[in-house]
Design goal:
By secondary structure, the protein is of the alpha/beta class. It is built from twelve helices and ten strands. Bound molecules: flavin mononucleotide.
């Protein structure tokens, strides 16, 4: 099978949003849960190094949690605080750089997507803007102003540490129904103070996080912000129903100091709003004037939902229409998830037109860190 007429546009260097990359391929952040007690070991470093060796332009790490007793929902998700975990990450950075790659951590707080009695501290309650789960059930008290200030500072500290230990950028996880997105979404944010209300009020927490991160890393360090309309419990959820709402939402985040937006969708070819072919990344780029990363089923014939809901894999698929959109300037960078999870050499195979060597993605790929 020929996967694409030409893949050259994917391999053009990128310069924008304070970041310079050798090509347009980004490894999407994917939780792997291979960091016992929150510490990424040499196997995690090797896993990322292999993607860098095989020509991924920018690696965004799996979600790695900020310093808070209720930030993680799994014992083996890496921490982004504490000497041991940060030393583990410094090794990851070193190995990726030795292989000629670039890397950003995705800093994360799960909010109320974490159940009670989970990690890192099993005594800590989950936190969220209104203490509501993603299905709207009360699970804890609404966050206090003091808690909000503490969490904002924890994001800023994580970003400062990312810069200090040599990462090339930082990505703030504002997507998929986790803490920041719980402030954005009216199902989980019922606050009546300045952190709630309309969509603008609901961006306030993210704006404070972005501003604090920017202040912590200085003017030149690239800050990427990932957001999504969909939530892990509701793939049809929408934060913005039309381009005007999206513009109001994004302009606040952009002004707060985002350099590059990462618009998370499940299928890159789907128009976001009626009357235009643009996908969410396309709209994001158009409305903010900032570089945008697209994502969703690149190189595979199934989407990530089918993995999470049915445990399904996927077969290699053409990327012709992706290349056409990239050529048209709809977006700047292309994130690849499952295809790169199952095959560290995916980018090299695309570049060298070795399409017959591309592998299917199977759920067994999750069972190893290869
Ligand atoms: C196993 C797995 C773990 C994931 N973990 C994260 C995560 O930690 N943070 C995040 O923003 N997205 C996460 N995602 C979503 C991916 O980043 C990506 O957006 C999604 O898989 C769609 O891309 P794909 O179709 O190329 O796989 C995860 C996806 C998978 C398959």
């Amino acid at each position: 099978m020929t996967l694409s007429k030409t893949t050259a546009p994917l391999f053009r260097p990128f310069e924008g949003g304070r970041l310079k990359l050798d090509n347009r391929i980004v490894m999407a952040p994917m939780t792997r849960s291979y960091s016992p007690n929150g510490v990424p070991g040499p196997d995690v470093a090797g896993y990322y190094r292999r993607r860098a060796e095989n020509g991924v332009g920018l690696i965004i790490t799996e979600g790695t949690v900020i310093n808070h007793p209720a930030s993680a929902a799994d014992h083996n998700v890496p921490h982004f605080y504490g000497e041991e975990a940060l030393e583990g990450w410094a090794r990851v950075v070193r190995e990726v750089h030795e292989a000629g790659g670039k890397i950003a951590p995705q800093i994360w707080h799960t909010g109320t997507a974490r159940e009670r009695k989970k990690f890192p501290d099993s005594n800590a309650d989950p936190i969220g803007p209104s203490g509501l789960s993603l299905t709207g059930e009360p699970v804890s008290e609404p966050m206090t102003a003091l808690e909000i200030r503490g969490i904002v500072q924890a994001y800023a500290q994580a970003a400062a540490d990312a810069k200090r230990i040599g990462f090339d950028a930082v990505e703030i996880h504002g997507a998929h129904g986790y803490l920041i997105d719980q402030f954005f979404w009216d199902v989980t944010n019922k606050r009546t103070d300045e952190y709630g209300g309309d969509l603008i009020g609901r961006t306030r927490f993210a704006v404070e996080v972005i501003e604090a991160v920017r202040a912590a890393v200085g003017p030149d360090f690239p800050v990427i912000f990932r957001y999504s309309q969909w939530k892990s419990v509701n793939y049809d959820a929408k934060l913005a129903a039309n381009p005007e709402e999206l513009e109001r939402f994004l302009s606040r985040l952009s002004a707060a100091g985002v350099d590059i937006f990462h618009a998370s969708t499940r299928r890159f070819w789907e128009p976001e709003f009626e009357g235009s072919d643009l996908n969410l990344a396309g709209w994001t780029r158009k409305l903010t004037g900032k570089p945008a990363i697209t994502v969703g089923s690149v190189g595979l014939d199934s989407d990530v939902t089918s993995l999470f809901t049915e445990g399904k894999g996927g077969q290699p698929a053409s990327i012709d229409s992706l290349i056409e959109r990239l050529e048209r300037g709809e977006f700047d960078l292309v994130a690849v998830g499952r295809a790169l999870l199952s095959d560290p050499a995916w980018a090299a195979k695309i570049r060298e037109d070795r399409s017959e060597e591309l592998k299917p993605f199977t759920r067994e790929a999750l069972a190893t860190l290869s």
